[in-house]
């Protein structure tokens, strides 16, 4: 089973360096074009289902894939971006200036501390683990699928899947990128095949 982890296309807040989190920001013109190129790039990676975050920017990206592959989109709120509470809509510089102590605690102990009104590391990981297990249950671990989500959430998904591979330390995925993971239902192991592929963006 191949799992294609896909980050949504670009938004205006991406350009402005603002934390989006759970805010429902749509794709901008560039993002919609990226999603179209991504969908074409997925032609060589046919899937039987698409699982998507419920946020608009992810659903818009998933819809471009669905329109070409004619498969079902299963919306899954557990795949939304990390919730950053009061930090959403701010840049990292603005956060460090306005919330210096909270930011320091969060940066040092993300598994315990959380942004004001946001999620901590364990909360995000728990819902990501649930999502992966639910997807494997639905597919029986035997159907190739696409998961359309967000930068930080994809990092958590990959981190969980690769938990027995400590070399996966820093995970960064670009807009409209594809990260490919193979799952074996026989051994119940995940294998990272390709990280952050954006070759489909070259017209």
Automatic annotation (TrEMBL):
Protein's organism: Lacrimispora sphenoides JCM 1415
PANTHER family: BROAD-SPECIFICITY PHOSPHATASE YOR283W-RELATED, HISTIDINE PHOSPHATASE FAMILY PROTEIN-RELATED
Superkingdom as given in the UniProt entry: Bacteria
Coiled-coil region(s): none
Keywords per UniProt: Glycolysis, Isomerase
CDD domains assigned: HP_PGM_like
Protein name per Swiss-Prot or TrEMBL: Alpha-ribazole phosphatase/probable phosphoglycerate mutase
